Amino acid sequence: MSNSARRNFIKSGLALSAFSILPPFFGAKPVIGKLLNEQGTPTYPARLVKGDTIAIMGMAGAMRDPKILSGFIQIMEQQGFKVSVGQTVNKTFGYLSGSDEDRANEFNDFVSNPLIKAILFVKGGWGCGRVLDKIDYEQQKKKKKIILGFSDMTSLLNAIYQKTGLITFHGPVGNSSWERFSLNSFLDVVCRGGVSFQKPEFPQLQLFSAWQSGEATGELIGGNLTVFCSLLGTPYWPSCAGKILFLEETHEEPYRIDRMLNSLRLAGVFDEISGIIFGQFNDCNAEKPLESFSLEEVVRHQLKGYSFPVIWGAPIGHVKDKWTLPIGMQVTMNAEETSLKLMRSAVS
Predict the structure, then answer these.
(1) 196-342: CATH homologous superfamily?
(2) What is the 3-state secondary structure (H, E, C) of the chain?
């Protein structure tokens, strides 16, 4: 997906959100507003065990390469899981994996299905923001399924946490690399109930370091910077008070990163959070570097005057090797040790 197309998708989603007061089409039944606990007491999904059934579906961009799905299924089956494949993985509706109603209804059906223990997604792109008002959040709270993805799924993960208090998971999708580190992090968090995230010893993580020292404790929120910013001003924006914010991005110029961080700053986010963890910001370099600030410069500009701990370059998001991070979990970050530790297991 080209950069300009990706940005247009986000803009389209923001424009559509202006019409959220209109009745949904085709009988969808959204649960909007303060009908649920709005980040009250967190709830934990059951851990995955061998023999459990995982659903794979399309919630965002259309899948154009069938090898992605077959490879994804093989990886999950090799871990001892059964796989149920949704119809949306083979649908195309423009750049989407089916209409908004197709995707929302299939997602709600998987949540309601007692045989399904987790819902994973075949790829990112754009599309989750279009169905946030069509998700059955009451069922989410009752059924407590593992919901895992990243990139465009940032909006879905944070919305579910905001509306229900259910812990969700920022981790790989079907077209991600599922090599040793990423797979082990996924299994450690959702199967073994692991609580520690340490710095992996990879050459590409040489920049993984403390930008601002200190230790902080709070609930994890965040994800992809562009998608997270698209939630501003909507009913799905999570409270940032006392939170540990994590952000990652890919293929965005420094001035665009500057603009999005500025939006968060003006919205008071940096006044509320207790710490921030940045990912590696894959290929976020200026097209004309001599006429631009560097990525690090614009981030430091936006964080000037804030004293919370800052970690830079963590294995999050659009990189080969990544952590699976539980959104909504109480964690302690230690900048000097570049470490993150959950206060308890993210699964029951």
Answers:
(1) LD-carboxypeptidase A C-terminal domain-like (3.50.30.60)
(2) CCHHHHHHHHHHHHHHHCCCCCCCCCCCCCCCCCCCCCCCCCECCCCCCCCCEEEEECCCECCCCHHHHHHHHHHHHHCCCEEEECHHHHCCECCECCCHHHHHHHHHHHHHCCCEEEEEECCCCCCHHHHHHHCCHHHHHHHCCEEEECCCHHHHHHHHHHHHCECEEECCCCCCCCCHHHHHHHHHHHCCCCCEECCCCCHHHCCCEEEECCEEEEEEEEEEHHHHHCCCCCCCCCCCCCCEEEEECECCCHHHHHHHHHHHHHCCHHHHCCEEEECCCECCCCCCHHHCCCHHHHHHHHHCCCCCCEEECCCCCCCCCCCCEEECCEEEEECCCCEEEECCCCCC
Identified catalytic residue from 17, 97, 151, 182: 151
Domain edges within the chain? 19-190, 196-342
Q: Just give the CATH number of 19-190.
A: 3.40.50.10740
Q: Is 170 a catalytic residue?
A: no
Query: Tens digit of pLDDT per residue, the chain (348 long)?
Result: 444 544 554 444 444 443 333 333 333 333 333 444 555 689 999 999 999 999 999 999 999 999 999 999 999 999 999 999 999 999 999 999 999 999 999 999 999 999 999 999 999 999 999 999 999 999 999 999 999 999 999 999 999 999 999 999 999 999 999 999 999 999 999 999 999 986 666 655 557 888 999 999 999 999 999 999 999 999 999 999 999 999 999 999 999 999 999 999 999 999 999 999 999 898 899 889 899 999 999 999 999 999 999 999 999 989 999 999 999 999 999 999 888 999 999 999
pTM: 0.88
**Which of 219, 248, 249, 252 is labelled catalytic?**
248
